[in-house]
Amino acid sequence: MPPTRSPLKLETRLDVLLALLGASTRPVRGITRLVKLLFLAEKEVDADRWLKRGEYYGYRPYKIGPFSADVYEDVEILQDSGLIEGTPGHAEAEDDIAAWEEEYATDVTPEPGPDSVHREVNRAFRLTGDGLKCAEAILSSVTNEQRTALRQLRARYDRMSLRQLLVYVYTRYPKYAEESEIRGDLGLE
After folding, report:
1. Model pTM?
2. CB-based burial of residue 139 (10 Å sphere; 0-12 exposed, 13-18 middle, 19+ buried)?
3. C-alpha to C-alpha distance for 56 and 39, rounded to whole angstroms
């Protein structure tokens, strides 16, 4: 369980994750989208520089674009703490994901196997009641500019399909697409 602090402030990457989820009333649909949103929070709104302590996610190029295993660890920590939940949902890009599941089963989630991949990809991540209180406290501790930046980031990218989001990330940040094995599937080769 993350250490209890009072008042809650934007100090660690866990706080950024909570603030990102709290910046919109919509859940984040799928772990791939969550990983990419946290990546974009670093690249486009400098969320990594807002931290009082700790380090941000160490993204590296991987088979499905920018990747950080730390996101999976933090999701588990926040779920175990009762601050977020991953509820079963229908993936917005079911056809695309189904084609990738078999080939990338061990790369999409730390738990290998098709069943775990399907569960992670199709989950809708949202704040619990306690998580919402924490996110609101964190968001109230940041500047108006930071809060607005996170809300605008969510508003912009929540409207994109997963395919559109991946194409955007790959074309805007090509260094992180160098190891990707799905560029052709996205029409980028």
Report:
1. 0.81
2. buried
3. 10
